[in-house]
């Protein structure tokens, strides 16, 4: 670089100072300018997109970090603690969120994976098209509508109470489409030669799917499930309709209300008192932590996938 | 058994751009089996007759039909429960601004809800679509190799933050910085009824700010889908443009964006579908209108969307009549998102037909 600049300085003043590169490209100033401008715009867009992420994480950590960095937070419930008072923990809500997520996964993973198997391995003709279309529609159903539907079914029609299991049903509706879509992608990536080799050995189709296709795409499917789970764990709308908050530990899905982190956030936010606001930030940080751990675990497992997208 | 097969040399080179032939633009992905309407896998006869095959095939088909039934049931149930309330409604459901869903003479209509829902979603689209497309272009065309994947992951992580946290953050932290923005917009464009900012409700509780937060929330969807189509642009198109002397930006304008256009449109639609139904962020932010207040066209007004009205009143579903009114509102929201998503799907399908 330095040699170049000395050459430039020693050159006679009559020589035009234009660099050779621009002459060669034949670009007018306007075109080069627009090109540079576009480059700047794209970089700026990326930085702008990151601002909210950094800001939200920063704010949540700053305001919620202190409250969750105590033993109480991870070992006590909010039983007997009014909004005015500090103290208590979130263990009731964490338990509720984890239990509901586990049951939701237990219901939606078999249905989702089997539907994906149907779409990739069996589906043909009109029915497969309609099912695929319906999965898309299910993906787009707003979570509050899923909550309303389960309310209309569970409470209004069947006459049951608002319990934890009803929440799981609503979350299942939201999780099935993500599992179907991600599993479908993974199954499609399994090379056809593997299936053909298996068939050629006389292995029945169902065994080929169970022993070849699904194991080959297994870690990809797990990734999809974890990402889907991370998504439904943060859902609040159906919980507000179907699973109101309670401050005590409740682990029975079939009896009584079940507290969760999202409803804990909603409840404490609406109290509008400083101790409750602090708890809201704490619950928000806890929820984000759980979701991010699932997300990162999912992406990490995806790295071991035998098929890559 | 499967483990023995894993490092098979049969695995096609699925990573990177080798996937797409630079001459024909034909993608190796096209060779892979697909469920939606393409010719099924060969060797289907492998599944004839055996008990295990019939059970497994039946289970798979059954799950598919279950999903189909689920969506149908959603529509059916919402209609069945909404109709009695709608029949009792003394006001016009589509044109009334009132919302008194209980009592002997219930009167409720959706005008205010529809307005707030559409305004917030459109504001979100106006911000998120250009920004999302730019971020997708950055990730696929501009980012240095080491930054590609981390950048995509970071933007995806925006989708992992729960809706309610966005709302709370908007209210407690970010909202105050919207006050000067609203004031400036009012000063410049305030003579238009759409941009009149009176100071009540405060800027963070307006439709405009709810739209901004929604924009952040749908940004990852718009980016992810645009990114996917941009990365599928045939290398030959790009190289062709560059070989003709185009600058990078001209290459993007003439090769990448036209190829990705249907993808951008469907990304926008899917983002819109998400924005229409987004609940908690909007519920926390928006300040509800007084029942007697005059209708305002301003984006700096308050209001409630379909979703936020339902969430706000979720504790009050005590009578069938009242619940029915909210379910009717939910049904309209379901139809809106259904139409938007179906339209997005049609656009994607047409693009598939075009590229094959």
TrEMBL record, chain A:
Predominant place of localization: membrane
Protein's cellular compartments: Cell membrane
PANTHER family recorded: PHOSPHATE TRANSPORT SYSTEM PERMEASE PROTEIN PSTA (PTHR42922:SF1)
Keyword entries, A-Z: Cell membrane, Membrane, Phosphate transport, Transmembrane, Transmembrane helix, Transport
Keyword Signal on entry: no
Ranges of residues in domain ABC transmembrane type-1: 94-302
Family (UniProt): Belongs to the binding-protein-dependent transport system permease family. CysTW subfamily.
Transmembrane segment boundaries: 40-62, 98-119, 131-154, 160-180, 212-233, 281-301
Protein name as catalogued: Phosphate transport system permease protein PstA
Pfam families: BPD_transp_1
Organism: Knoellia flava
Mode of membrane association: Multi-pass membrane protein
Function: Part of the binding-protein-dependent transport system for phosphate; probably responsible for the translocation of the substrate across the membrane.
A single MF term (Gene Ontology): phosphate transmembrane transporter activity
SUPFAM superfamilies reported in the protein's UniProt record: MetI-like
Region (Disordered) location: 1-26
Keyword flag Transmembrane: yes
GO CC field: plasma membrane
GO term, biological process aspect, one: phosphate ion transmembrane transport
């Amino acid at each position: 670089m330095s040699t170049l600049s000395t050459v430039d300085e020693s050159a006679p003043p009559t020589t035009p100072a234009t660099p050779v590169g621009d002459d060669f490209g034949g670009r007018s100033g306007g075109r080069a300018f627009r090109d540079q401008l576009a480059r700047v715009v794209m970089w700026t867009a990326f930085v702008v997109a990151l601002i909210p992420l950094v800001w939200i994480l920063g704010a949540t950590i700053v305001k919620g970090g202190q409250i969750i960095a105590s033993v109480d937070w991870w070992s006590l419930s909010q039983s007997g603690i009014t909004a005015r008072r500090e103290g208590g923990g979130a263990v009731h809500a964490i338990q509720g969120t984890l239990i509901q997520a586990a049951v939701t996964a237990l219901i939606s993973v078999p249905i989702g994976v089997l539907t994906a198997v149907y779409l990739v391995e069996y589906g043909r003709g009109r029915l497969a098209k309609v099912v695929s279309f319906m999965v898309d529609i299910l993906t787009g159903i707003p979570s509050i509508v899923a909550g309303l539907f389960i309310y209309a079914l569970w409470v209004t029609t069947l006459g049951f109470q608002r319990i934890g299991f009803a929440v799981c049903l609503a979350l299942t509706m939201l999780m099935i489409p993500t599992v179907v879509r991600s599993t479908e992608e993974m199954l499609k990536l399994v090379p056809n030669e593997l299936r053909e080799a298996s068939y050629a050995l006389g292995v029945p189709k169902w065994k080929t799917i169970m022993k070849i296709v699904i194991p080959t795409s297994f870690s990809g499917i797990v990734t999809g499930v974890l990402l889907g789970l991370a998504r439904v764990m943060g859902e609040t709308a159906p919980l507000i309709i179907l699973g109101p908050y309670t401050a005590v530990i409740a682990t029975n899905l079939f009896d009584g209300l079940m507290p969760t982190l999202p409803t804990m956030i909603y409840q404490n936010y609406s109290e509008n008192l400083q101790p409750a606001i602090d708890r809201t930030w704490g619950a928000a940080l806890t929820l984000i932590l759980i979701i991010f751990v699932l997300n990162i675990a999912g992406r990490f497992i995806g790295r071991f996938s035998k098929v890559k997208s | 058994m499967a483990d023995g097969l894993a490092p098979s040399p049969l695995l096609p080179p699925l990573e990177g751009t080798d996937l797409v032939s630079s001459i024909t633009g034909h993608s190796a992905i096209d060779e892979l089996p697909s469920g939606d309407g393409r010719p099924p896998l060969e060797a289907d006869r492998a599944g004839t007759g055996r008990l295990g095959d019939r059970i497994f095939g039946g289970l798979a088909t059954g799950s598919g039909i279950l999903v189909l039934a689920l969506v149908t049931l959603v529509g059916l149930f919402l209609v069945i429960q909404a109709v009695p309330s709608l029949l009792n409604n003394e006001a016009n459901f589509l044109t009334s601004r009132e919302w008194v869903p209980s009592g002997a003479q219930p009167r409720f209509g959706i005008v205010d809800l529809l307005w707030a829902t559409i305004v917030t979603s459109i504001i979100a689209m106006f911000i998120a679509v250009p920004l999302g497309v730019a971020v997708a272009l950055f990730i696929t065309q501009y980012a240095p190799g080491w930054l590609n994947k981390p950048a995509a992951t970071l933007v995806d992580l925006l989708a992992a933050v729960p809706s309610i946290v966005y709302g709370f953050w908007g209210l407690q932290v970010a909202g105050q910085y919207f006050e000067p923005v609203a004031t400036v917009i009012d000063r410049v464009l305030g003579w238009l009824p759409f941009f009149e900012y009176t100071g009540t409700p405060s800027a963070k509780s307006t439709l405009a700010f709810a739209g901004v937060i929604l924009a952040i929330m749908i940004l990852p969807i718009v980016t992810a889908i645009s990114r996917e189509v941009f990365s599928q642009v045939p290398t030959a198109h790009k190289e062709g443009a560059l070989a003709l002397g185009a600058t990078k930006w001209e290459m993007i304008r003439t090769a990448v964006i036209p190829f990705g256009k249907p993808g951008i449109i469907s990304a926008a639609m899917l983002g819109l579908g998400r924005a229409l139904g987004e609940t908690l962020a909007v519920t926390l932010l928006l300040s509800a209108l007084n029942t007697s207040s005059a209708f305002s066209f301003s984006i700096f007004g308050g209001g409630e969307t379909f979703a936020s009205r339902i969430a706000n009143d979720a504790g009050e579903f005590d009578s069938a009549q009242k619940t029915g009114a909210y379910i009717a509102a939910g049904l309209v929201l379901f139809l809106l998102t259904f139409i938007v998503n179906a339209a997005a799907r049609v656009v994607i399908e047409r693009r598939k037909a075009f590229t094959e």
